[in-house]
Amino acid sequence: MKRWLPAFLIVVLACLPLVLGHARDPLLLQDSDTRVALEAIRERHSPLSWFASDWPLENHFYRPISTLTFEADLAISGDDAGGYGRTNALLVAASILLVFWFVLEWLGRPWLACGSALLFLLWHLDVGPDVFGWVSAMGVGVALVGAIRRFTCGERPTLGMLGPPTLAALLGFGLASELGGVSLLSYRMLGWIPGRTASTMTVFVLLCLAATARFLRQARLAASAEARPSTRLDPETVRRLAERASPLDLPATRGTVPTVAGHRPWVWAGVALVSLALALGSYEQAVMVPAMMLVLALTSPRRPGPMGMVWPAAAWLVLGGYLALRAGVVPTSASTYQTQQFRFGEGAWIALTNYLIPAWTPLWSAWHSLAAVGVDAFLIGTVQRGVIALASNVAIVVAAWKDRDGKALLAAWLLSVLAFLPMAFLKPFDHYHYLPMAMRAVSVVLLIQLTLRWWLTAVALPARQAPPRPHPEFGSPHHP
């Protein structure tokens, strides 16, 4: 049995209630956007025509792939709202399962992939950050236990001695603020039919990133096989006996035969590029995927080799082709809807920094309190929360920098920032956060792991200096 199969089955079982309990309210089809879209689809009655025109709402968006999901529901379910709700739920479940596959391909750790998928699923239930306040209290408790144990062991109170307990408490604060997610997802993704534009895109983006991660790994194995051919078997036998590489395969060494099957890396390169094209045809947010693929190549756990580093440039060619096609099919001028939605200035900056620096919102409130009240504002809870939030963010970066999984944590964090970047310049809607939160789930699970390690370090007994060895040692011959 595959080592990842039990973890995958847990995710599948967790998704079943989400799919079986899908939205069925007839009001699903009474939303203005849904009603107009379905009327336009009925009137045109030509599914392939959406590849050469604006999408049904005619507000200058090129979304033929996500429009086809409306076409399919209209053909299968007609006016049955439950059919549309079921499709939304299936797209959400597919996104959750693909989070599992992406993490498995990227990091090769089944239970980390399982945790990321389950956390992403939990965020669909709109569990707010207040539910996880106990994590902050636990962090403070761990810090107190760690400090007391150090004092009772006879250590003098120094800044270095208080370092692990303090860091453990700050990581607890940071983790508590991240566990609740950035936005609510339930209504827009499950109870609002047009929200499937974001989930359809997310399905193809995660498929693209998973295929990219597999390509990078297999490209490295192929490079290793060419650089160090096996001396035990002839090349034809090695090629014939090679097995399909998996995320859990050991890297090639001098004494092993690399597991690589001919030109299979390029098959996954093709899957990634096709998935990218489908994502771009689903929702405009996918324009950031080539940059996300580049981050994967630069932060791969193992160096992918020259082929793996050069190939992501092909994604930019796909993006250029999409932009040219879109300019020829959809009007390049902004529609009335787009003009109403664009925003620049302070609002866009705050929305983006909420991803880049999670402490930004409490810190912003603290700054305004300081400006209004002065130094006395440090007695106000708002300012204290802002200072603690900033310190917790710094602690996460410092701890991640020292941790063996810190590179992956910071990379997943950056992926979520890139995914949200173009949406920061639009008035906020919850479905804008769908793909970014899928990436964010990976970084938060890595943060859980990092926090637990530091909690154990904080409560562990401090290291003691070994006693000096006698000179000469007992029983050793005398040396002048």
Name the beta content range: under 5%
- Structural class of the secondary elements? mainly alpha
| Helix proportion range | 55-70%
How big is the Rg?
A: 26 Å
Query: What is the first-to-last residue Cα distance?
Result: 65 Å
How many strands?
0
| SSE ordering | HHHHHHHHHHHHHHHHHHHH
Low-confidence stretches: 229-234, 236-245, 257-263
Q: Total helix count?
A: 20
Q: What kind of sheet is the major sheet? A: none
User: Please, what is the average pLDDT?
Assistant: 83
Shape: globular
Descriptive report:
With 480 residues, the chain is mostly helical. Among the domains are: 5-136 and 184-193, no CATH class; 137-179 and 343-461, no CATH class. 65% of the residues lie in helices and 0% in strands. It contains 20 helices and no strands. It has helices at 5-20, 32-44, 64-77, 81-107, 110-123, 133-152, 159-179, 186-190, 196-227, 235-241, 264-280, 289-298, 305-310, 313-329, 336-341, 346-356, 360-373, 381-402, 406-420, 434-459. α12 runs antiparallel to α14 and α17 (360-373) crosses α18. It is globular, with a radius of gyration of 26 Å. It starts with a helix and ends in a 21-residue tail after the last helix. The model is unreliable at 229-234, 236-245 and 257-263 (pLDDT under 50).
